[in-house]
Amino acid sequence: MRKTSVYIETIGCQMNVADTERAASRLRIAGYELVGDSESADVVLFNTCSVRARAEQKVFNRIGEVRKSSRHGKQIVGVTGCVAQLEGGAIFDHAPGVSLVVGTRATDRLPKIIERIRRGERRILDLGERDEDEVWDISPAERHSPHVAFVPIIEGCNKFCTYCIVPYSRGRERSRGASEITSEVQRLLRSGFKEVHLIGQNVNSYRPKTETGLEGFDGATPFSRLLRAVAATGIPRIKFTTSFPRDFHHDIVAAIDEHENLCDWVHLPVQSGSDHILHLMRRGHKASNYMHRVEAIKNARRKISMTTDIVVGFPGETEKDFEATIELVKQCQYDSIFIFKYSERKGTPAAALSGKISDSEKTARFQALNEVQRGIQNEIYASYLGKTVSVLVEAISTRSTEDMTGHTTCNKVVNFGEGADLMGQIVHVKVTAAKQHSLYGALV
Ligand code: 5AD
Ligand code: SF4
User: Fold this and answer.
1) Does the beta carbon of 311 sit less than 6 angstroms from any atom of ligand 1?
2) Which residues in 3-141 belong to E strands, given as ranges?
3) Which of 134 and 311 is assigned the larger pLDDT?
């Protein structure tokens, strides 16, 4: 008998990518076939993001598109992830073609849920918690890359920054056991993976229930001990994201200093350079505390590249507050920044604040900050000219089929000619040209 085919479309962050991989693993074990396009699939699932209004809207546009397809009426359509968790049953009213809504912690039950729909149940809603004995077991075939793997170490968020929906969509922080994490990394190493990204909304708030797996690894916090434990597996490259500034202990820098395979890149979202706005955002840090952390990073033995997230147009953000952000960005000399226009999220404390900023003003601030960063970034990227960098060869470039593409240890994209036979290997590339977001070079 033909297997039932499932297509999963992922919107949003790396955690969603990892959740999709996990769901795909479960579905394949249960006998489903995973396919790469919505048109041919019997089941279409949207794994969704709600961090900003635009991402949330996207899923409803995509559901509309799928309904227009020739197979409309014969396909099962489902919504999983953050929008599912937050909107719940309201999705059925909004998008009547949807028959299953499955929250962020219920994805392991997808095979059973789909089975029930196939047997005739019309609508199923599951926003429940994970089962106690669930294991985070992703088969290599479902990974987004055969060379780079995302390894979730902590889920959820306890920080409740006033603009952010994540604590509501993903619930409280739950850390995975350290030995489970290091075993997964060892398995990845044996299957040929070269790089792991330890992921979580706040990786450095990692706090497992027990010490199991951390014994014998020094460190000032469970996270820095975990970094040392993962480094000891011998996997060539370890990156981790996202770090929360208040929990960014300088011991993380010490661990990077000690272990070559802990990569020279830190993503440390500052959100704003103004203490007044940071206070309204309830970030738990001031610009000065943040700068102390940056200083520790800058004083590392290896040069560590730094990236950040910034929200512009938070309620009450004055010209002066915005200038403080510009100043901080100039001081930090980030290798790259992600700028977001503040997007009001229903149910968050910031939605009730006065002093809303118009969309045109948000756009103007976005562009002004982008311009400042462009100058900084051009200089940083140009400083790589003539230097040799280590690159993990990950894929054929999307721009030119003759070029290969990969990342440096400091997480910069590098494209270079030749080398299709070097896929999955770590090579040395001499940089011959610098663009704003990537480097170009030749194999040495
Ligand atoms: N509006 C705009 N940006 C947001 N982010 C989180 N919530 C919002 C929001 N309501 C940004 C933050 C965070 C990143 C993942 O998304 O900068 O670090
Ligand atoms: Fe959102 Fe703040 Fe938690 Fe990050 S730390 S997920 S911005 S609430």
Assistant:
1) yes
2) 5-10, 33-34, 43-48, 76-81, 98-102, 124-126
3) 311
